[in-house]
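[SOLVED] Need 3D model of a two-part complex

Original post:
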Amino acid sequence: MARRELDLDLAVVISRITSALQRALADVLPEGDQLGPRHRTVLAFVQPDGSRAVDLARESGQHKQVIGTLVDELEALGYVRRAPDPTDRRAKLIVPTERGHRQIAGTAAAIADVERRLAAALGEPAYRQFKQSARRVAEILRES
Amino acid sequence: MARRELDLDLAVVISRITSALQRALADVLPEGDQLGPRHRTVLAFVQPDGSRAVDLARESGQHKQVIGTLVDELEALGYVRRAPDPTDRRAKLIVPTERGHRQIAGTAAAIADVERRLAAALGEPAYRQFKQSARRVAEILRES
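Solution:
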């Protein structure tokens, strides 16, 4: 056990954080139970006036095909709808429904609360440093 | 876009890291394609001579019921088998198969490679600090 804790690899640490965040979100958002972490990530990037699938793919770091499936599921669950893009009649926009807006706002509030608690526990500068490094890690992994 | 990048919330950053790690593992381990991140996490904690489900649940931070399902799936895919626990005849041990051992070793090598690249890009002290903070974040979230 002690040995494992010391050299716990990055994938395991990240997976533990994901599980804990999921539980925190499930606690405050029982309505969101049907949503997995990837749904929430995609939903977090949907702009209030709609987003294109290609932009959601780039911003969330998922393949466009995966985004299509996740958007289908979000649509079936009533969180988004597809609407014609007023600037390009061949394209569709993914637009949050009323339920989607509520979910986006509720998730954002719950995550902000978790982040306030983490900043209080680690200290504000250490938490800011951690998040900055985490963003760099995500960028480096995306580029490589 | 720029605005979003600046205040990107913790859940989104962690989800991007997870996606990138998954891609890195899929690249080097085509055999592992059927395994999701939660399977890999559970498998990472299975000891060479077997582990009990209750220990896998504690170490991976998943509910015991979830562990049961993941172990069923890992067993169906041939990565683990259930065997009687020699120290407690009412209990079962989850033991890696030959395929499971290969997968555990391959995943560990791939993650170690990713971590070496991250340490080179961020600098060794900054990467060590990041991992230490990530472990603290996982602990704090688990306790709260």
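Edit: Residues 1-6 of chain B have pLDDT under 50 and may be disordered.
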